Amino acid sequence: MVGLTPDGKVYNTSVLSHAETPGLGAKCTEDEHFMTQFKGFDPSQKILTVKKDGGDVDAITASTITSRAYSLAVKNAVDAFKTIKGE
Questions:
Q1: Could you tell me if 71 and 57 are in contact, meaning their C-beta atoms sit under 8 angstroms apart?
Q2: Reduced to 3 states, what is the DSSP secondary structure of residue 20?
Q3: Which residues neighbour 60 within 8 Å (Cβ) at sequence distance 6 or greater?
Q4: Cα 34 vs. chain centroid, distance in angstroms?
Q5: pLDDT at 64 over 70
Q6: How confident is the model at residue 29, as a pLDDT?
Q7: How distant is the alpha carbon of residue 67 from its chain centre?
Q8: Mind listing the pLDDT tens digit for each residue in 11-49?
Q9: Which residue has the higher pLDDT, 60 or 3?
């Protein structure tokens, strides 16, 4: 779930359910640094992809695929918001 402010910044994110490997991909719900880096994320100033791919998101160690998927989900929410808003 992705919450956005009226100006399009990420307010917060939350994983509602997942089927990730415990201790690896499941860290997307446990790794405090990973989860909090999206709070206040301004997609007009930063790139919503992992640093390994040229973006500004720190990936979870040993869980690059999960980090990419999470970042893409947030980006998709931002893009949908912009479309609805008419940007």
A1: yes
A2: coil
A3: 24, 25, 27, 28, 31, 34, 66, 67
A4: 9
A5: yes
A6: 79
A7: 8
A8: 999 887 777 767 666 777 777 888 899 999 999 999 999
A9: 3
> What are the tokens at 36?
């909090």
Q: How far apart are CA 25 and CA 44, in angstroms?
A: 27
Torsion, Cα of 7, 9, 14, 15 (10° steps): 110
Q: How many CB atoms lie within 10 A of CB 26?
A: 17
Q: How far, in Å, are 20, 45, 85, 87 from residue 37 at the CA level?
A: 20, 14, 25, 25
Cα-only R_g, the chain: 13
Distance CA 18, CA 35 (A): 15
Say how far apart CA 43 and CA 84 lie, in whole Å.
16
β-pair partners for 13: 2
- The predicted model scores a pTM of 0.88
3 membership: H or E segment, kind and range = strand 2-4
